[in-house]
Amino acid sequence: MNNDSPYKRTVHMDTVIIRTLACLAAGIALLILFGIIGYIFFQGLPAINWAFLSTEPSFLDQTYGIAPMIINTVYITVLALLIILPIGIGGAIYLSEYSKQGKILSLIRFTIEILSGIPSIVYGLFGALFFVLFFNMGYSILAGAFTLALIVLPIVVRTTEESLKSVDPTYREAALSMGVNKLYTIRTILLPCAMPGIIAAIILSVGRMVGESAALLCTSGTAYQLPGDIATHYKNSGATLAVQIYQCFTERPPGMTDATPFAIAAILMLVVLLLNFLTYIVGKGIKRG
Predict the structure, then answer these.
(1) Residues 257, 188: one domain?
(2) Is residue 3 assigned to a domain?
(3) Residues of the domain holding 127
(4) What distance in Å separates the CA atoms of residue 224 and residue 189, rounded to the nearest whole number?
(5) Which is the most buried residue in 154, 183, 187, 243, by most CB within 10 A?
(6) Where are the alpha helices (DSSP H) in 186-259?
């Protein structure tokens, strides 16, 4: 194109500066992210083996394993999901489909925003006073599961509500014109269409619960023995993987080495990366379906 053309593109200096600063910020963020992940994997992966994953800490043998913590993490996460999903999804359906605009709805949404901003240690204090002492659950996995359910409640409600709102409104109108009742419309049309967002909310909640430690220190305790009976294990105290990382720096369990906290952190990071990958794959599969 002729340089004298009136359609010549003009690049302003401020645009170049802003673009450069944005690229620099993104590069720094990526450098920090990959630096942290790389350092943890470099320190922790060599310490991971089958004995590390399948045994428990032993004072007699002076060996260290994280099998009890893996079981506790899975147990408390599944239990918390069973508690929170009916409440969270049900609350999101009410806010999206049944509630009317007004002060009550604004108050509910404001409360959810407040809940999402409360530090986890405050949830832990509340859980210790309410579930551990008032309901006499003691330091147990059940008390920790209820506390985790409170922590992830805003995630499930907000993500599910936004997913329901994003469903094409013509679906509601078509169902209404055919005389279909609201409950049937929600069950057969809206929830299947919003399923990618709901699954994303579930996986995000799992990621948050797997990495939680402060609240669980106050509620589920720090025991790291293998469970005797899985069916009644919810009554017992149990440390998760995240809690065990904290213990590695405070109590120094038997058989632990300097690489042990990094090995546990590497496992947690692999779990989080896997959860994010599953979110992407499941979301694409459901949308394609």
Answers:
(1) yes
(2) no
(3) 50-288
(4) 45
(5) 243
(6) 191-193, 195-210, 214-217, 241-250
> Does some domain include residue 133?
yes
On whether residue 1 sits in a domain, the answer given is no
| Residue 23 burial (10 A CB sphere; 0-12, 13-18, 19+) | exposed
Q: Which of 197, 239, 253, 242 is nearest to 58 (CA)?
A: 253
* Per-residue pLDDT reduced to its tens digit, 135-177: 999 999 999 999 999 999 999 999 999 999 888 888 888 888 8
For the chain, the domain total comes to 2
pLDDT above 70 as % of the chain: 94
Classify residue 173: in a domain, yes or no. yes
Question: Could you report the per-residue pLDDT of 2-40, keeping only the tens digit for each?
Answer: 555 554 555 577 788 889 999 999 999 999 989 999 999
What is the number of other CB atoms lying within 10 angstroms of the CB of residue 134?
9
Predicted TM-score of the model (pTM): 0.86
